[in-house]
Amino acid sequence: MTGASSGLGVDFADLLAAQGYDLVLVARRQEPMEALAEQLRFKHGVDIVVEPADLAVPGAAAALKERLDARLFQIDVLVSNAGYGVHGDFLDTPIARTVDMIQLNVSALTELSYVFGRDMAVRGHGHILLVASLLAFQPVPTYAAYAATKAYVLSLGEALHDELRSCGITVTTLCPGHTETGFDAAAGATASAALRMLTMQPRPVVQSGLHALWKGRASVTAGVMNKVVAFSNRLMPRFMQRAAMRRVLGP
Ligand SMILES: NC(=O)c1ccc[n+]([C@@H]2O[C@H](COP(=O)([O-])OP(=O)(O)OC[C@H]3O[C@@H](n4cnc5c(N)ncnc54)[C@H](OP(=O)(O)O)[C@@H]3O)[C@@H](O)[C@H]2O)c1
Hints:
The protein has 251 residues and is an alpha/beta fold. It has one domain (8-249): NAD(P)-binding Rossmann-like Domain (Rossmann fold, 3-Layer(aba) Sandwich). It contains ten helices and six strands. Strand 3, helix 4 and strand 4 form a beta-alpha-beta unit. The structure holds NADP nicotinamide-adenine-dinucleotide phosphate.
């Protein structure tokens, strides 16, 4: 599972280990993953391997797959959770930061789904959980490129849900709303009062994602309030969706 050094990734690792899964933890920061691995081995008695990697480097997903193949590891459940947002005016954000985010949120996630999905197809079974966002449902000024990456993830995930079913692979896309993690700090954002009222803790978000995955759902939005937001959004014209998002998320 990717993005295992903080936030949602920690709860994904804990819940999967509690279900008896051996894990491969991937993110850039090795230390928090080693500490988590130690804790989960003790708590759940499973094997955990830490694989530090910068997935925003082109080709990183294929390189990771090669390293795991060399150790004869087989991935039955891929949780593609690593990602971050870039908050602020598009033209004021260094383009290298935006491109790096696209590389991680879009290219690495796609490549991971491909390299591990092909193995799962050969075996005739597997599970893939992609982490998108509530921002996937509409354009979001001040999170313009980030929201666009998550719209891609949701679209890819739902299409692959249908396409890979015949290979025995379940693909589910999780859309969290604002969640108490390292996300805001990484994005350079401060949550507004309105957003703080909707903020969820990571645990129930992760539980809803895994529940949907095991149930074979195409996608799930975490939390009742976020489901209401996603649904009411559909009833609004797009200019109103943008205005509402700007009010809640803008500077
Ligand atoms: N929290 C929210 O409000 C929210 C809402 C909707 C969607 N999401 C999505 O949820 C996912 C998890 O984010 P989070 O909320 O848990 O935030 P987080 O606490 O900042 O976690 C992000 C994870 O991604 C990893 N990561 C970042 N850049 C990476 C890179 N280049 N290569 C490998 N790993 C990298 C980070 O580890 P390192 O820094 O150690 O690499 C970290 O483990 C993301 O896809 C995010 O877009 C979050």
